[in-house]
Amino acid sequence: MLAGCTAEAAGEDPTAGPSATGGSGPTARFTFATAARPVTLDPALASDTESFRVSRQVLEGLVGVDALTSAPVPLLATGWTQSEDRKTYTFELRRDVMFHDGEPFNAEAVRRNFERWYHLPESVRSGGSLMYKSVFRGYSDTPATAVYKSCEVEDEYTVRVELNTPMESFIAALAAPPFAISSPKALAEAGADSLTRELNGRRVSGYGVHPVGTGPFRFVAWNEDTVELAANPGYWGEKGQIGSVVFRTISSPEGRLRALKKGEVDGYDLVTVNDVGDLARNGQRIQQRDPYSVLYLGINQNFPGLDSVLMRQAVAHAIDKPAVLDGLFLNGTKPANQFMPEKLGLTSDSVTGYGYDPEKARELLEEAGYDGRELPFYYPRRVTRSYLPAPEKVYARLSAQLTAAGFNIRPVPVDWSEGYLEKVQGKEDRAFHLLGLAGSYEGGDNFLGTLFGRYTEEFSFNDPEVFTGIEKAARLPEGQDQTDAYHAVSDRISQRVPAVPLAFPISALALSPRVSSYPTSPVLHEVFNRVSLTDR
């Protein structure tokens, strides 16, 4: 078992640590508390917020995120052009950029990353939950469904990407962490596509414990509950004040609050309602993000009885959403009746509504022939998510409401760190589960495509009309036709109830007085070279 991985242990020059930043570079230390450990530091194989939080510091993509609007902007690409048929994109690349291992960033590096994603072996695809699958639809072993066609080098700093079909969100999606560019040399030397190691009870590759990118920080060490980074002395962009970064995992909200008050950390994410008063009294700052996530109650149609739409509609009628949210979510959180946040401007006014009506739920259960079978309800413990600040309490309220409407609920608590994501997105014998989706880029496909664009084990939902509708909307250029297409899909999803949308939550960070500026982002594109401190 691999208990931890340091730069030296992974084969990196040990001088890559904080002292390597040099006397003239950034020197401040910034410690940030996280709610869970990363799963892997290889963003291409990750699907969790905490893995991406770290990888964003180390790796960069061709496309970045505008700090004010969240729109896509140039990053490692200085610009791009699109062909008339919207299937070919030519990227001009930034020059004089080096990976942390000294290898040059160029068109060949970009090509090798695209080809790696396309040819990922089935053994590392995490049961289909990777963002590559939701964005590009297929891999090299399923070319008939694949959006990606090829990536060709035109010259050292020009690369051409060809798609099999148009995809409106292609550029925006490239700003998401899974499409960050890794050093091809590091990928090859570390065996990035072979999960040969174990860390914190999970299978990872050698690259997954030692990423190499072009970002403002480089990897130093990962030891169970801490990840250490150091400033990249050769960074092409703004270096900022931070010379070293420590991510420290503290799973309980109370523990994170305590660490901030004692000065052990400079900030933490996922502020809860219970934290707010204490933070204000102690002079700590709270920064909220615009809502860009959705909390939902997942329904597994492979569980006996739940293949009946009547029974799923009964679930929707049994839930009093405002009562579930009351006092557990930050002010500004709104109940959800569909899966796309208002920020996208794609909200449909004609979705099927399921008002709180336990009597109607009981009638539907009887009509569906529900026999009182026990229904396992999975929910996470010992974690806080941006869309789920108090998992046990949310579960308790939902369970009580479902029970009152006639459902026989069996609680199945699972520690987040013990593979909760894998259990609720795999073939476990479950009826219901609590989960959510935090948006990674601007576009309706980020939500509907990710959740319902194809058959997944999470919902066991198979509706060709929905799948085709999402595909149509994703291919249309931005405008009224695309909006109408997304409205039609949202309406159909609301009728079929593969899951019940519960809330569009507000999330917030807590920062010590030492932090004068922090780059909050609805899509969590928060890179610490843009953090400003009152001291150095």
TrEMBL record:
Gene Ontology MF terms: peptide transmembrane transporter activity
GO biological process, one term: peptide transport
Gene3D superfamilies in the cross-refs: Dipeptide-binding Protein, Domain 1, Dipeptide-binding Protein, Domain 3, Periplasmic binding protein-like II
Positions in coiled-coil regions: none
Sequence ranges assigned to domain Solute-binding protein family in this UniProt record: 72-453
UniProt keyword Flavoprotein present: no
The entry's keywords: Signal, Transport
Region (Disordered): 1-27
SUPFAM superfamilies: Periplasmic binding protein-like II
GO cellular component, one term: ATP-binding cassette (ABC) transporter complex
Presence of the UniProt keyword Ligase in the record: no
InterPro entries membership: Peptide/Ni-bd, SBP_5, SBP_5_dom
Organism superkingdom: Bacteria
Family (UniProt): Belongs to the bacterial solute-binding protein 5 family.
Descriptive protein name: ABC transporter substrate-binding protein
Annotated organism of origin: Arthrobacter zhangbolii
